[in-house]
Amino acid sequence: MKLFPEGQRVGLGSAPLGNLLGEVHEGDAAAAVTAAWDEGWRYFDTAPHYGLGLAEERLGTALRDKPRDEYVLSSKVGRIIYEASDAATDDEGFEVSTTRRRRWDFSRDGVLRSIEDSLRRIGTDRLDVVFVHDPDDHFEEAVATAFPTLIELREQGVIGAIGSGMNQSAMLTRFVREIDIDVIMLAGRYTLIDPDGLDDVLPACLDNDVQVVAVGIFNSGLMSQPRPAAGTTFNYEPAAQSLIDKANKLADVCESHGTTLPAAAIAFPLAHPAVAGIAVGCRTAEEVRTNAALARTEIPAALWSDLKSAGLLREDAPTP
User: Fold this and answer.
1) 149 exposed, middle or buried (CB, 10 Å; 0-12, 13-18, 19+)?
2) What is the fold of 10-309?
3) pLDDT tens digits for 44-77?
4) GO terms for CC (predicted)?
5) What is the model's pTM?
């Protein structure tokens, strides 16, 4: 299935709408989704993990009046959300205090329950794409039960496409080579500062006709500003000084060509032939409009050759 409409290869990632690394007010969350729609974004990604279901609920509410056949919606399986007896503050990076908890579950029953719960929280009749989410420590269960269940649902026409979303490329490469999947969500492993997906998963995707949605393209913050901000993060942890230094060198070259680091970071992954599009996490309508404008920015072709000449970008990286 086609994940992104012709001429529009940017979608909205909803993890921030689940209060990732900070609270997002209800109105701001709704405005972010509306702004994404107004910008022509028609791919929306979510997951039970994001705010213990909060992101799914907020995304579904904001999309409720949109024509369902005009956008692609993906969610994920692997974590079950259940109710506990007492409220607690989530300890996995989402600022929510709730009676909800999460537990790992890649079983057939767990996959079916997760999809049913997601449909209810989002308020929709179908998921177009379902990813097996973060099975880093659950490879055997994912292969034995989660993927076969999703393949069965795909064959029945219940879901359109299946795949896996992870922050690593090695296991994704195995899934691409060994399992009949359609798409992967590659988080943070094909970015301007960390293009290591070139070594394994991206060639495998080309060989097996698997589409890639590149996410985490700013590596959680390091490249989201023209210059790395104080306290910036890489993969949701404090960024090492060596990475901050490299980001500043990348920014130097971008500025010499009249553009910015975030604009180059958005453009870079889209040049790879396996990448169908990107999803960008946004907390507000302003962030959506900023990223949409960056995605429309014309990047001088000489920028890429200068980055390679300076040793800041791999020679084998496809560029626009």
Assistant:
1) buried
2) TIM Barrel (3.20.20)
3) 999 999 999 999 999 999 999 999 999 999 999 9
4) cytosol
5) 0.97
Q: Name residues of the chain where pLDDT drops below 70.
A: none
Instruction: Answer yes or no: 82 catalytic.
Output: no
SS (H, E, C) the chain: CCCCCCCCCEEEECHHHHCECCCCCHHHHHHHHHHHHHCCCCEEECCCCCCCCHHHHHHHHHHCCCCHHHCEEEEEECEEEEEEEEEEECCCCECCEEEEEEEECCCHHHHHHHHHHHHHHHCCCCCCEEEEECCCCCHHHHHHHHHHHHHHHHHCCCCCEEEEEECCCHHHHHHHHHCCCCEEEEECCCCCCCCHHHHCHHHHHHHHCCEEEEECCCHHHCCCCCCCCCCCEECCEECCHHHHHHHHHHHHHHHHCCCCHHHHHHHHHHCCCCEEEEEEECCCHHHHHHHHHHHCCCCCHHHHHHHHHCCCCCCCCCCC
Give residue 6's pLDDT: 86
Q: Return the pLDDT at 1.
A: 87
pLDDT in tens, 122-165: 999 999 999 999 999 999 999 999 999 999 999 999 999 999 99
| Residue 209 φ/ψ region, left for φ over 0, alpha for ψ in the -120 to 50 degree band, beta for the rest | left
Quote the pLDDT of residue 99. Answer: 96
CB neighbourhood size of 68 (10 A) = 12
Domain parsing of the chain, residue ranges: 10-309
Q: Which position among 43, 50, 71, 190 bears the catalytic label?
A: 50
Residue with tokens 């959680």: 220
State residue 236's pLDDT score.
87
